[in-house]
Design a protein that fits this description.
With 144 residues, the chain is of the alpha+beta class. The chain has one domain: 2-Layer Sandwich (HIT family, subunit A). Helix content is 26%, strand content 17%. It has 4 helices and 5 strands. The longest helix has 12 residues. The protein is globular, with a radius of gyration of 17 Å. 19% of the residues are buried.
Length: 144
Amino acid sequence: MTELEKDCLFCKIIRGEIPSYTVFENDDVKAFLDISQVTKGHTLIIPKKHLVNFFDYSQEDAARFLQYIPVVAQAIKESDPTIKGLNVEVNNGEIAGQVVMHSHIHLIPRRSENDPISTPHVNNADQYSEADYQAVANAIKNNL
């Protein structure tokens, strides 16, 4: 693919201008170790087309690029018998913690409950009535 940005960090990795520890690559995607290694084996999957985040994806883009998530996830799991699970994370937009503005998916192996990872989730169910839930669901449905 030639739809890459000149100054994008991940586009530079795709072009080979910046080295990476590649674990999988084909015409559509590149998967490589995240330099931070939140846990051993932490891997990023990026499309070889510059898309900022999921808001930029067409259905064709999703079909073309996201199909490799289970392929790489399974390879990560099989690479180490101590891996018991995997966090699949996407930070979509700056407000959601996206740092590199090129779509990427984090595959973070989990070995124990004591891994140095935090996945905070807040339960706000007591703040929603059935009408509130239905209004939110309808607003989303109306945009599909």
